[in-house]
Amino acid sequence: MKKAVKSQRPVNLDLRTIKLPITAYTSILHRISGVILFVGIAVLLLALDTSLSSEEGFEQVKSYLSNPLVKLIVWGLLSALLYHLVAGVRHLIMDTGHGETLQGGILGSKIVFIVSAVLILLTGVWVW
Question: So where does this one cross the membrane (predicted)?
Fold first, then answer.
């Protein structure tokens, strides 16, 4: 039996205790927002189908949209969409060769968070 080579890999893989760089948070949130959009689009398509089926269906969806909880859900879906859009534009810019350095990635991540926060707040004002 061969003896295992001593590994320098970290032993503690508890993500709550590991300090991730801002670029990692940008990437993780981009993936999470994509999953939220994937699930949320089913709900939105159902609401669209109901609203287009009849006048009563339209009134039903309209009454649902006046509920504060539904407004919060819609705002959450729009927030996921806006964040995903801004982070996706960042990826497209990086695909052209800009912002691929460590400093460029950090700056790009900060810009994504700032632009997304402004757009999400403006959307919150619009929804409410």
Answer: 28-48, 68-86, 107-127
